[in-house]
Structures are given as structure tokens and as C-alpha cells.
From TrEMBL:
SUPFAM superfamilies: Regulator of G-protein signaling, RGS. PANTHER family: REGULATOR OF G PROTEIN SIGNALING, REGULATOR OF G-PROTEIN SIGNALING 2. SMART domains: RGS. It comes from Coilia grayii (Gray's grenadier anchovy). InterPro entries: RGS, RGS_sf, RGS_subdom1/3, RGS_subdomain_2. Residues 66-182 form the RGS domain. Gene3D superfamilies: 1.10.196.10, Regulator of G-protein Signalling 4, domain 2 (1.10.167.10). This is RGS domain-containing protein.
Amino acid sequence: MREAAAHLRETACLTTLKASDIQMDKKTKKNKSWRTQLSYLLKNSTSQRKRSTTPTEDELDQWAESMNTLLSSRYGRIAFHVFMKSEFCEENLEFWIACEDLRQIKSPTKLRSRARGIYEQFVKCESPKEVNLDFFTRDAIEQSLHNPSLSCFSSAQTKVYSLMENNCYPRFLLSSLYSDLRSAAVQKERHS
């Protein structure tokens, strides 16, 4: 069992993550353990480049310093997404990533389409992955969809980021997932 977990952690570090990678197959059961979910994400990653290495103890320490550092790491995003999925709040991270991706769009047509998609998926009342936003923020976003800008979700994204930073992120750092990653990093450095 420990060998399988170690292999999983080793495999986890050999992948990279794009926003589309965190969309899990609808057929998967929602109550899977984080280990099973992590394995699924890694097996179904669109990119299987072997240039990455397992996160070092220093890298894990950096993740603990700020959520921004955690989210800047592709592997950190995978681990945080798996944790949030186990907490039934993954829509917050998915919304934040979608907003970050939106800021990279150059074409006004694509921007309008993607902004509408984000609204329909995350912001609209009773949407499939509705994030917790107040009426005024929702209304401002809805009004901005007539002529969307790269920052039309900035207020909502800031609120969701703050929610994750003050709620989910501290729990992630105390989770068995983070603890297992740290143990694996320490063990690997001892054997190096």
C-alpha cells in the first residue's frame, strides 16, 4: 500500500495541469477519496511530460507561505483541487482558474463567449457550479456581459480568492494530503 502511494506521489509530479485537466469525468463517483481522485486526475492529464520532479520540502514550505505560491505551482493546483473536491467546494478554485484564463484572451469575440460561459457555469443563480456571491456582485457581472472586459469578474474573483485563502487553504495545510506530500518529499530527500 505504501509503495502504491509512493508511486502515486512520484507519478503526480510527472504531470502538468491546465484548467481543462481539472474537469473530471461526469461518470466518476463524487465520494471517492482524495487519493483516488488524485490518481484519476494524473492518469487523465492531457500532458504527460517528464520534466517535472516531485515537489521538494522547500517547495512544500513555499506552498505553506502563501496561497498564491500554491496556485502558481501546477502540482500545487492539482493537490489543492483534489483537496477542495474532497471538501465539496472545488467550484471556487475552478472559477478562479477560469477567471485567470479569461485574462489571457485577446479576441473580443472569444472574450465575450468565454465570459458568458463563466457566467452560465459559475455566477448565474442555480448554475451547475454556482459560487457564493452577493446579489450586487452577480448583478454587476450580468450587466458587464453586454460589453465584457478582461476584468469583468475581478470583484467576484477577489471575493472567491479571499474565501479560499481564509477557509480552504488553512484546512489544506492541515490535511492528510499535504502531510503525505510532505512526508514523501522528506523521505525522497533522505534517499537522495
